[in-house]
Design brief:
The protein is an all-alpha fold. The protein starts with a strand and ends with a helix. Strands 1-2 form a two-stranded antiparallel ribbon. The N terminus is likely disordered. Helix 5 packs parallel to helix 15, helix 8 packs antiparallel against helix 13 and helix 13 runs antiparallel to helix 14. The protein has one domain: Up-down Bundle (Amino acid/polyamine transporter I), CATH 1.20.1740. The protein is 69% helix and 2% strand.
Length: 460
């Protein structure tokens, strides 16, 4: 192997006196021209540890994280866009999301090589990119890091709110059709609060691991059964809209972006791979996982809308036949989502707990940690009670947080890294500005459309 090349970097400090994430110098190994062209020379093998992931395990985790409750609302999204336009747009949006995810991974390894680090999270990728940027911006790294953290915080708690509404919808429909019990959705949310509160007081996720694995199995089995039902009960294409109204496209965008709820786990999974090249290469974990997820998205959305038609509900589980077999699937989904709730809840709570351990005296830390957990669950319940319409909630969270994290921030990071690498060409400018504008368009129109419909629902 050739000798490494040293990239000199000036040490910096943030205005509040914190050390910058930029080191004094970074060592980047030389590589062959092909690797240099593809950027793979930055992807160095990591030391194995007990938490290391093989490509197969990383693929399973990534696929599972992306196939959440948003998948079951995709038939409604296809109603908004139309059968054929929806199919085209789901491929377009998924392709752009994949490209942006790849940007984040490449930039992460550039920043790690620049700063002499082995791994990095999403928020610190943003910070490192800002601090590598132009002088008028590079002292704002800490602010932008926290901006990403807040966005991720909102996204994860938003998922938890959606889970509340999803479980209440399915529990309400199941008990109404099977037992004739007719309770308001708000009451079902209050009932579900008790088991959710119990599981969220468990701080060690290892205790939930067996239940999580079982939930993943039953979730995928239930999705397969629903998909089979769709394919065997299709309507004529003449009975559904081929192209939807332009005014409904923002809601389609928000729903699709929400379905990509695994964007926050990209870097945690990549950081645990011994050979990160296997994550990013053309036939690697990221491309293969997204291809699988896209296939499932397109199949469920297309055939779900074609099977149910314009009467499709916020979640297609509500469109299943009244036979006991299909009704039980609703309860299976409730159980699966109940186990998934504390996993989504763990991400924001982990950050809050770290703050508590730094700022609160040791003897009071446990008390405050559990108070925050109880308060966090109540917060998601209250928001879910305020906006009990699943489709609108999904579109709002997807357009606001999903578009920000998956479409707007990645090209912005790429621009700053290109600046630091002195490869900021007209082509790079054009590509990244297009991606930012695409993300902003979806962010603004999707958020506005969801908020407008929510306001209309309350006023009506």
């Amino acid at each position: 192997m050739s000798q490494p090349v040293e990239i000199p970097i000036s040490p910096r400090r943030t205005p509040n006196g914190e050390e910058s994430v930029i080191a004094d110098a970074a060592i980047v190994p030389r590589a062959d021209p092909t690797e240099m062209e593809e950027g793979l020379h930055l992807f160095q093998d990591r030391r194995p540890n007990p938490n290391s992931l093989t490509p197969e395990k990383a693929t399973i985790h990534l696929v599972k994280s992306m196939l959440g409750t948003g998948l079951l609302s995709l038939p409604l999204a296809f109603k908004h866009a139309g059968l054929y336009l929806g199919l085209i747009l789901v491929f377009v949006i998924s392709g752009i999301c994949l490209y942006c995810m790849r940007q984040v991974v490449y930039c992460a390894h550039y920043i790690c090589a620049r700063n002499g680090r082995e791994m990095i999270d999403y928020a610190n990728i943003m910070r490192g990119a800002i601090e590598a940027g132009p002088s008028w911006l590079n002292r704002r790294g800490y602010f932008f890091k926290q901006l990403v953290n807040v966005n991720m915080f909102i996204a994860q708690l938003g998922f938890c709110c959606v889970y509340f509404v999803f479980m209440a919808d399915n529990a309400q429909d199941f008990f109404l059709k099977v037992a004739g019990i007719d309770l308001p959705k708000s009451v079902w949310m209050a009932i579900l609060l008790i088991p959710i509160m119990i599981v969220c007081l468990i701080r060690n996720l290892n205790y939930l691991a067996p239940f999580s694995n079982a939930a993943n199995f039953f979730y995928l089995l239930a999705v397969a059964i629903i998909t089979y039902y769709f394919i065997t009960n299709l309507k004529s294409t003449s009975e559904v809209a081929k192209v939807g109204e332009i005014s409904n496209l923002p809601l389609f965008f928000g729903t699709v972006m929400f379905a990509f709820e695994g964007v926050c786990v990209i870097m945690p999974l990549e950081n645990r791979m011994e050979r990160p090249q296997q994550f990013i290469q053309w036939n690697g974990v990221l491309n293969f996982s997204c291809a699988v997820v896209l296939t499932v998205f397109a199949t469920v959305g297309f055939y779900g809308y074609l099977a149910v038609g314009d009467s499709v509900h916020d979640t297609v589980t509500l469109d299943l036949p009244e036979e006991p077999f299909y009704q039980i699937i609703k309860i299976i989904f409730v159980g699966c989502v109940m186990v998934s709730y504390p996993i989504q809840f763990y991400v924001p709570m982990e950050r809050v707990e770290k703050w508590i351990t730094r700022k609160i005296v040791a003897e009071k830390q446990i008390r405050y940690i559990y108070m925050v957990r109880v308060g966090g669950v109540f917060l998601t319940l209250c928001v879910a009670e305020l906006i009990p319409h699943l489709a609108l909630f999904i579109s709002l969270i997807g357009a606001f947080s999903g578009a920000s994290l998956a479409l707007i921030i990645p090209p912005f990071i790429d621009l700053l890294c290109a600046y630091a690498q002195r490869r900021l060409t007209v082509g790079v400018w054009a590509k990244d500005i297009f991606l930012v504008c695409f993300g902003l368009l979806g962010f603004l129109t999707g958020t506005y459309a969801a908020l407008a419909d929510i306001a209309k629902t309350f006023s009506g």
